[in-house]
């Protein structure tokens, strides 16, 4: 076996034998204080060479008892005998979030592949960090939820987008660090739960359209419940359904242009769900007015940020770090907090407000009117004429025949051009690839359409 398979890291410690058990106990506390999880092997030198270790039930009991007696708070690792390169070794896997951990009465921290004793100030900072993390909703355990409440199809879809492999739901959640002591974190449930609203009544999106610039006259109201990915998609669809859409032509293709830039809109919606205060019972809400669209989320700016700072300095502090990390894995958000910069680059008149603990993004509506149908048709006709002139002869003949008779068959086209059916179909495929024509309906009952 190649020695490179085993190499000490901040997560992994290698020990030649249980004669180094005391040092291993220190390493466990050290790794837990840094990463809250890790592994140790007995029977492998720190160079990576597998030398093996005498293993018996007594060996396992001795390791377990030494860890239990000398680490506080208590740790309950998984200890098992493993066979590596035909040699017996001991593998220990441990998880713990009750930092700081003490080994033999002292606190250590992992730095590279070494264990260093913490100073009094470092220990104080570690305790402060622990208390700070306890106040984060997305770090907390969802006590009532079980693995059975998680949708495997949602996990699979997420992993595919993140270019990660799926083996089992529980394993996937563990690798994504959405389990603590094998219990589900809130983040796991609100992202991948079959019915997150069963556990969190605020896993909800509220949308409304108003007739004027105030809330006095309501045209439409809808509520949506579900996981965050579903709510984000529904929020974007709702806004786009209820604002004006203009158009432009690129060749023969019609491009829809909503009066609010899609990228800016999507970024604001993702940010609302990423940064909202999930301790608050309220929900993310969308309000479409005659002159503007507002995306509101419960929770003021986090970490001492101000509206002036986010506009001018493009800085970001994450209220929900794990949710943000999950969004980052599927490219919903960037690690460096570029969301505000993107919104302002696409929609420079974007406004930000904070009122009564609610953060609001306001987009001005441009009242884009769709071009009259006659104008669109005339423009498409002119574009088609110009396009036909540039096509090769056989493609040009096919397009003209399709314009005259949209129900014409490939066999009829073959006769009209005077070439065999195989080459006729090749020319048809070229026109389809150029997005000039498309087939609608079945082969027998369908028809051709010139894309416009």
What can you tell me about this protein's structure?
- By secondary structure, the chain is an alpha+beta fold.
- The protein has four domains: 3-133, Methyltransferase, Cobalt-precorrin-4 Transmethylase, Domain 2 (2-Layer Sandwich); 147-198, no CATH class; 204-364, 2-Layer Sandwich (Heat Shock Protein 90); 373-450, Arc Repressor Mutant, subunit A, CATH 1.10.10.
- It is built from 15 helices and 20 strands.
- The strands form six sheets. The chain has a six-stranded mixed sheet, covered by helices on one side. The protein has a four-stranded mixed sheet with strand order 1-2-5-4, covered by helices on one side. Strands 3-6-7-8 form a four-stranded antiparallel sheet.
- The radius of gyration is 31 Å and the shape is extended.
- It starts with 11 loop residues before the first strand and ends with a strand.
- The mean pLDDT is 86.
List keywords for this structure.
38% helix, 15 helices, four-stranded mixed sheet, Methyltransferase, Cobalt-precorrin-4 Transmethylase, Domain 2, alpha+beta, 452 residues, 23% strand, six-stranded mixed sheet, extended, 4 domains, Heat Shock Protein 90, single chain
Ordered list of secondary-structure elements with their pairings:
Blueprint: E1 12-15, H1 21-35, E2 37-42, H2 57-70, E3 71-72, E4 78-84, E5 87-95, E6 102-103, E7 106-111, E8 114-117, H3 120-134, H4 152-161, H5 169-175, E9 179-180, E10 183-184, H6 186-192, E11 204-210, E12 218-225, H7 228-241, E13 245-250, E14 253-258, H8 262-275, E15 284-288, E16 292-298, H9 307-312, H10 321-329, H11 339-346, E17 351-355, E18 358-364, H12 373-390, H13 393-404, H14 410-417, H15 421-433, E19 437-440, E20 447-450
Helix pairs in contact: 7-8, 8-11, 13-15, 14-15
């Amino acid at each position: 076996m190649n020695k490179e398979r085993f190499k000490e890291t901040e997560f992994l410690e290698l020990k030649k034998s249980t004669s180094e058990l005391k040092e291993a106990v220190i390493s466990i506390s050290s790794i837990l204080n840094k990463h809250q999880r890790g592994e140790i092997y007995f029977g492998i030198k720190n160079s990576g060479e597998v030398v093996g270790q005498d293993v018996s039930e007594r060996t396992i009991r001795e390791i377990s008892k030494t860890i239990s007696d000398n680490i506080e708070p208590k740790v309950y690792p998984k200890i098992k005998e493993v066979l590596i390169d035909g040699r017996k070794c001991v593998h220990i896997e441990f998880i713990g979030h009750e930092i700081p951990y003490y080994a033999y009465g002292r606190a250590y921290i992992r730095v590279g592949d070494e264990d260093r004793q913490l100073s009094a100030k470092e220990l104080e900072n570690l305790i402060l960090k622990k208390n700070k993390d306890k106040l984060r909703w997305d770090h907390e355990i969802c006590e009532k939820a079980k693995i059975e409440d998680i949708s495997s199809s949602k996990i699979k879809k997420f992993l595919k987008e993140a270019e990660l492999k799926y083996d089992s739901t529980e394993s996937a959640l563990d690798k994504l660090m959405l389990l603590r002591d094998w219990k589900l974190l809130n983040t796991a449930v609100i992202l991948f739960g079959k019915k997150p609203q069963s556990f969190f009544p605020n896993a909800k999106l509220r949308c409304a359209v108003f007739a004027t610039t105030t809330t006095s006259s309501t045209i439409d109201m809808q509520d949506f419940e579900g996981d965050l990915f579903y709510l984000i998609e529904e929020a974007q669809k709702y806004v786009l359904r209820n604002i004006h859409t203009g158009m432009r032509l690129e060749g023969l293709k019609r491009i829809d242009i909503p009066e609010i830039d899609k990228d800016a809109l999507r970024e604001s919606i993702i940010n609302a769900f990423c940064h909202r205060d999930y301790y608050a019972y309220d929900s993310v809400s969308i309000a479409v007015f005659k002159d503007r669209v507002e995306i509101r989320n419960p929770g003021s700016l986090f970490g001492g940020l101000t509206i002036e700072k986010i506009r001018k300095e493009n800085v970001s502090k994450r209220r929900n770090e794990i949710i943000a990390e999950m969004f980052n894995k599927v490219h919903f958000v960037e690690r460096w907090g570029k969301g505000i910069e993107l919104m302002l680059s696409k929609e420079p008149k974007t406004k930000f407000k904070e009122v009564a603990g609610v953060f609001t993004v306001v987009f001005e509506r441009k009242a884009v009117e769709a071009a009259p149908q006659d104008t669109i048709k005339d423009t498409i006709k002119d574009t088609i004429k110009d396009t036909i002139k540039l096509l090769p002869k056989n493609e040009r003949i096919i397009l003209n025949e399709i314009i005259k008779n949209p129900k014409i068959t490939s066999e009829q086209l073959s006769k009209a051009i005077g070439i065999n059916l195989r080459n006729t179909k090749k020319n048809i495929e070229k026109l389809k690839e150029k997005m000039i024509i498309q087939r609608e309906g079945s082969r027998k009952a369908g028809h051709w359409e010139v894309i416009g």
